[in-house]
Amino acid sequence: MKKRRRDRLFAQPLGNISPFQFDDQVAAVFDDMIDRSVPGYRTIIDAIGLIACQVAQPGSFCYDLGCSLGAASLSVALAQKQPSCTIIAVDNAWPMLAGFQQKLRQQKIPPPIQLICADIRDIAIQNASLVILNFTLQFVPPTDRLALLRKIHQGLLPGGALILSEKIALPEARQQSLFEALHYAFKKARGYSDLEISQKRSALENVMIPESLPVHANRLTQAGFSSCEVWFQYFNFMSLVALK
Ligand SMILES: C[S@@+](CC[C@H](N)C(=O)[O-])C[C@H]1O[C@@H](n2cnc3c(N)ncnc32)[C@H](O)[C@@H]1O
Predict the structure, then answer these.
(1) Which residues contact 125 (CB under 8 A, 6 or more apart)?
(2) Domain CATH for 96
(3) Ligand 1 mutation target, pool 30, 32, 33, 68, most atoms within 8 A of CB
(4) Of ligand 1's atoms, which has the minimum distance to the CA of residue 48?
(5) How far is the CA of 44 from the centre of ligand 1 (A)?
(6) Which residue has its alpha carbon closest to ligand 1 atom 12?
(7) What pLDDT is stored for residue 59 in this prediction?
(8) What is the pLDDT of residues 138-187, one digit of tens each?
(9) Which of 48, 54, 98, 195 is the most exposed place for a label (fewest CB within 10 A)?
(10) Which domain holds residue 212?
């Protein structure tokens, strides 16, 4: 197994901080970056495989939207005792997909996984028993989120599920400050310096836009989902399952 490269992208003072992009530099350190930045990321990835075992229907598709290096797709693929659904992994950042392709070459994966380089707002979704948006919706412009969720809802089979994981904003100001401080402490405890944390925060401003849980829940209802339940939360990071 190849040794994971440590994320040092924001370790040196950057005069001009460019907006965050999923480019070659990020792809090279992404596994380490997301593990040390998103509380509970590994737990969520492992649970996605378990959820898929419950909801994936034979002959259907499982979409992993904003798949990055494919952690969620691989979790679904490896959790299935028998190949059941075809996994369609989509990302519009070619460096991320190239990294995923490299991983696939190194592992023997049971069911077929198709990789598509496209904007998730432009692809068709059909015959889906599971759709995964694992920390991706927060990068889609807020004005486009409802249309995307409607399309996902329409493409799901009866009984199909959406897994939505997001960084969330807290509606109450004191809770927002507390949870932000807790996330800061989480990153410090995992070796990020104050400079790294603040420069990355600047790079992500206006690129990643978190919303509150009530906003997500209302939008899911508007998109047609009949129920949604949060199954995981760690500070200001949560994952929910919405059912058609
Ligand atoms: C935080 S990462 C997602 C992590 C990944 N789902 C996982 O579980 O490891 C966000 C990903 O979404 C992709 N992305 C953002 N907006 C997108 C869009 N409109 N269409 C396709 N991919 C998008 C980015 O390129 C990036 O790889």
Answers:
(1) 63, 131, 151, 152, 154, 155, 156
(2) 3.40.50.150
(3) 68
(4) 8
(5) 16
(6) 66
(7) 92
(8) 999 999 999 999 999 999 999 999 999 999 999 999 999 999 999 999 99
(9) 54
(10) 24-243
Does residue 6 fall inside a structural domain? Answer: no
Q: Distance from the CA of 70 to the center of ligand 1, in angstroms?
A: 10
Q: Let me know if residue 78 belongs to a domain.
A: yes
Which one-letter amino acid corresponds to residue 15? Answer: G
Report pTM: 0.97
* Helix segments in 80-227, DSSP class H: 94-106, 142-155, 173-189, 194-204, 213-223
Query: Which structure tokens are listed for 191?
Result: 């070796």
Ligand 1-lining residues (CB < 6 angstroms) = 22, 34, 66-68, 71-72, 90-93, 96, 119-121, 134-136, 139-140
Model pLDDT, residue 80: 84
- Per-residue pLDDT of 221-234, as tens digits, reads 999 999 999 999 99
In angstroms, the CA 136 to CA 8 distance is: 22
pLDDT for 112 equals 86
Query: Ligand 1, from 20, 41, 136: best to mutate by most atoms within 8 Å of Cβ?
Result: 136
Q: Is residue 224 domain-resident?
A: yes
Q: Is residue 3 part of a domain?
A: no
Total number of domains in the chain: 1
